[in-house]
Design a protein that fits this description.
The chain has 130 residues and is mostly helical. 58% of the residues lie in helices and 11% in strands. It contains 7 helices and 3 strands, in the order ααααβααββα. The chain has helices spanning 3-11, 28-35, 41-54, 57-66, 73-80, 84-96, 116-129; strands at 71-72, 100-105, 108-113. The chain has a 3-stranded antiparallel β-sheet with strand order 1-3-2. Strand 2 (100-105) and strand 3 form a beta hairpin. The relative contact order is 0.09. The model has no long low-confidence stretch (mean pLDDT 87).
Length: 130
Amino acid sequence: MNKHKKKQDLDLIPSSDTPICDTHLVHLDNVRSSQAQILPTDKAQQMAEIFGVLADTNRIRLVSALASSELCVCDLAALTKMSESAVCHQLRLLKAMRLVSYRREGRNVYYSLADSHVINLYRSLVENLN
């Protein structure tokens, strides 16, 4: 993502001062109890990459189609009104992040969401939009 796009995204956030502490006092008990819960940098990076891949309208639409059933590339292309080539490109990115899996049946390749975690994440996000 380029710098212009990031700045444009930040412009969408209402401008207001973020409240901060009036004094600089670290609560060591809170820090110690939370330390085990904070993600290590490498896991945070992996999660950021997954969310980055999902931060695309076409890929989210493919995920939404696959949330209910297994579909082949031709079906996904017809459903999303995208070319088969474009669908394959998006599926390759989703597959690289292990968000979708596939199986061959004769000459057809069927895609589905990789596991229940991906389905649950998708459904949770959809529910929070309503």
